[in-house]
Every structure is written in C-alpha cells, then in structure tokens.
Amino acid sequence: MDVETIWDCGGATLADKAEFKECLRLTWSQPYILQLVFSAGIGGLLFGYDTGVISGALLYIRDDFMAVEKSTVLRETIVSMAVAGAIVGAGFGGWMNDKFGRKPSILIADALFLAGALIMALAPTPIVIIIGRIFVGLGVGMASMTAPLYISEASPARIRGALVSTNGLLITGGQFMAYLINLAFTKVTGTWRWMLGIAGVPAFIQFILMCMLPESPRWLYRQDRKEEAEAILRKIYPAAEVEEEIDSLRRSIEHEIQLEGSIGEQSLIGKLTKALSSKVVRRGLMAGVIAQVAQQFVGINTVMYYSPTIVQLAGFASNNTAMALSLITSGLNAIGSIVSMSFVDRAGRRRLMLISLIGIVLWLVVLGGTFLGAAHHAPPVSELETRVFANQTCPEYRPTARWNCMNCLKAESTCGFCAHEGDKLLPGACLAAGDASRRTCHAGKREFYTEGCPNNFGWLALVALGAYIVSYSPGMGTVPWIVNSEIYPLRFRGVCGGIAAVANWVSNLIVTQTFLSLTKALGTSATFFLFGAVSFFALVVVFFTVPETKGLQFEEVEKMLEEKDYKPWKRYRPDVSSKGRDIGLSVP
C-alpha cells in the first residue's frame, strides 16, 4: 500500500506548523511522550521498510533461483503475498484491537514480522520465501492499523495530529531506508537474505520497548479500568491539565457509546445494512471507495514494489545501478508527503486530486512513449556475435530470423541479450538466461540484459518516472485517506472506513499481482499506456463523484450529501449562521 496511510481513530489527521512546534516543545519537556510515540512509531517504519526492501531483494532472488527468473507470476506472488497477508492482518487486527487492546496487537504484529523475516532469510526455496512474506504481511497489516491508533490515543490532544502525521512520514522514511540497506548489502554474500532478514531487528526492538509501555488509556477506560487509564494520563499530561483531560476522555467515550447505540446493530452485517440504507452513507461511500481504488489503479505500487525492475526495463542492466537510481523515486515520494501537508488545506482535497491525476496521466503517457521508442530502437541480434557463445545460444534463435533485443527477451525459454563489447547499441548476442551465460557475458566486459534492452532513452524514462512520483505523492498519495476521514457520518465512520481500506488493499493486490505479467504479455510501453488510460478514466470518475470537503464540519458534510440537488462537482456553501455557531468543531 502506498503508504501515506495516516490514521487517527479511523480517520486521517492533519497537523499545521503550530502543532508541530508544540509537538517538539512538549516531547522535549516530557520524554515519556517521545518514548511512547517512538516505540509505537517503529510500526510505521516496518511498514515502509517492507514496501521498499522487496523491490531490490527481488533482483537477487531472481538471480539465485532459475524458477523465479523464468516465471513472472512467481515473482509477482513473492511480492504480492505480503499484500494478501496485510489484508487479513488488517481485518484481524481490528478485532484484536477491540478485544485484547492496542498493546497486545502491536506485540503480536512484531512477533509475526520477526518470524517472517527469519523465515525469508533462511528460505531454501521460493515457496518458503512466499510463506515468510505472508507472515510479514500479517504483521504489517496489524501494525498499519494499530500503531497510529495507539499513538493517537496515548498522546496529548493538542499534538495528536503532528504525532500521527509523523508516523506517516516514518512509513516513507522506512521505504527510503530500505533502498539504502539494499545498496549496502549488494556486495555481501547472501545479498537478499540480509536485506529481508534485517527487518527483524526493528521488529525485535519494538517488541522489547512495547513490553515496557502501558496500554492505551482510551481502551482501558472503555473496559472500565478507569484507575489504570487515569494513572497513564497523569504521565502524559501536566498536572494542571490532567483532570480536564480525564473529563474530556469520559465525555468522548460516552458520546461514542451513544453513537453506537443509535446504530442499534452490533454485528458487522447489521451495521453495514443500516449504513447502506442511508443515502448520505451511500454517496459518501461511493466517493471514498472510488478515491481509494483510484489511488492504487494509477499504478503507484508498480513503482514502489518494482522500481529497480522498471529501471532495468528502461535499459540499465546492473542490479546496483537499478537500486541506486530507485533511491530517487523513494526520496521524491517522501518529499511529496511533506509537500502535501502544506498544500492540502490551501488547494482543497478535490482540486489537489484532480491536478495530481492530470499529471499522472501525462507522465504515464510519456513513460509509455519512451519505452515504445526504446523498443523500436533495440539493437539487432547478430549471428556472428551469437556464434561466440555457441553452447549458450537461446534455443529459439535461428540465424535466418531477423531478431532484435526485444525478440530475444520475449523468447518462451527465457533468454537474455549480451550487448556488444564496444558499444551496447551495436548488434549483440541472444543467449539462454542463466548464471553461466551471465558470467560468460560479463567475462567479455559486456552487459547482460534480461528485462529491458540497451538504448539512449533510459534517462528520459527516469525523468518521467520521477515526474510521475512528484505528481502522485502530494495529491493521490495522501488525499484519498483525508477524504475518507471526513466524508462519512460519525456513527458509521468505522465500518465505512474499513470498507474503503479493504478496497485499497485489494486494489493494491490486483495491481501488484499483474504488473509483470502485463509487461510480458503486452510489452512495457503498452502496460504504461494502459495505466495512463485507467488514470484518465479515474480522473473523469473522481471529477463526477468526489465532492470538496475542505473546511467543512462533519455536520456540514452530512448536509451536503443529503441535498436533493447534490452534485459533487459543485462547491457546497454551508449556512453561514450555522457555521458561526459551530466553528469550534471545524475539521481541516
């Protein structure tokens, strides 16, 4: 999942500059808060690390196992099984949070993550790697739900947004750290085993730290363990503020229980049925789910999970080069997350999404055109060059056939292109893919290509890829989560937010499990053109279904959605007198 998933009790929380300053001041004066948030925030770091690390590790897993080299479906499965595990983990984690508390849920998530990291590091076969990925996915799914929830419930209200937003930044920071660690282990024996196994270290650290921390005071209060909750609040808040915060917590939970009572149904099916019977919820859910599905179907996780592979498709054969250049995409994604925090309240949610989608469509078309140009200018396969490697020639290659590099890479038996020794753009040899062919090719000071062909368009592809990330991250990367936090009636926010989150994870799984197969079946350029077409369709659908929620209170959003002449593309003007009365409840 992209990972600007910043949750606060079922919704996204934004923080302004003043809140961040207050956050720094308060954490400095009360180290306990810093310890608490840092310990829980490692969950965000793990989430981001897992997203980033597999992209680089996959290159070396492919080199070690011929079955992975030959099967795009197996490669996709290795990547996507963590996403599948996360879907189950997120659902199970929600039940665990309510039943046993936030702290046990984080400890179980750490244990699953640690077990998965060890299984992958010691895996003798690709199937065992997949099992490890499932364990890691279960842990990631539980942590992605529980860590932000724990932080939001155990932190002072006035800096809550800043602390939860920091958790989101740790996710992108974890991705960037993963690329750096991937680079650090490229020259070490066991490359991918270290890359995947080292993820167990922060999981182990978090497990130890969480054992020393208390349960969420909000959860304890709901379980009628009020004395324990109050004792924790006294550690978090200054003495002058404690009684007020205890009273605020009591009133908040009473209101929450009252809302649950107004729904009447306690079962998930009952709540869902009641929610869908409301026109307001149906309209809100349509907008929320469309925003979440669009976030994934524009292809972002093809970049986050397969970034080094895409760099190789652009014509950079070296694993080291591919991972070094992939640092750019990760860095731009992190910068985009920070930019979004500054602009989302100025530009508005809807406008930022639409501008983001326009940029995404443009740069996906440029990417598709770049790969199309590279394919048309692929160097030919030379009979003379191929004869040099007589015993390692691609089985399908015939001297009478007029093949170029692209024909070689598309061969059924999995072949690679050994570039010309002097100039990689001159005719080269088509060899059967494998360690022996790769070593022989490298021995002649040649590059061996298995994903993309040598060309002069590679740098243009990297520029387009970076521009795509810059377009995506501040808009479609963050805004769908914000819209989902604001668009549902308070009493149905939990169930509707859960549906939208599942839609996001499932869309992520679909994209992750099909990207390499699409590049194999359609070609790289056609795949990016397809994502461009899907993104354009998303632009049209978002325009007609997602309203602007900027500056509206929850009650005003509800009134907007229940209007008879409701049109999402028209700006809703709330009643001025109502706005004046309730300004204290306004939501960013």
From TrEMBL:
Looking at the UniProt entry, the stretches that span the membrane are 32-61, 73-93, 163-185, 191-213, 284-306, 321-340, 352-375, 457-483, 495-516, 528-546
For this record, the Gene Ontology CC terms, alphabetical, are: plasma membrane
Q: Where is the Major facilitator superfamily (MFS) profile domain?
A: 36-550
Q: Which GO terms describe its molecular function?
A: myo-inositol:proton symporter activity
Any idea where this protein resides? Membrane
Q: Which Pfam families match?
A: Sugar_tr
Q: Which UniProt keywords apply?
A: Membrane, Transmembrane, Transmembrane helix, Transport
Lineage: superkingdom:
Eukaryota
Membrane topology (UniProt): Multi-pass membrane protein
Main subcellular localisation: membrane
Task: Give the protein family.
Answer: Belongs to the major facilitator superfamily. Sugar transporter (TC 2.A.1.1) family.
Q: What is this protein called?
A: Major facilitator superfamily (MFS) profile domain-containing protein
* Provenance organism: Oryza punctata
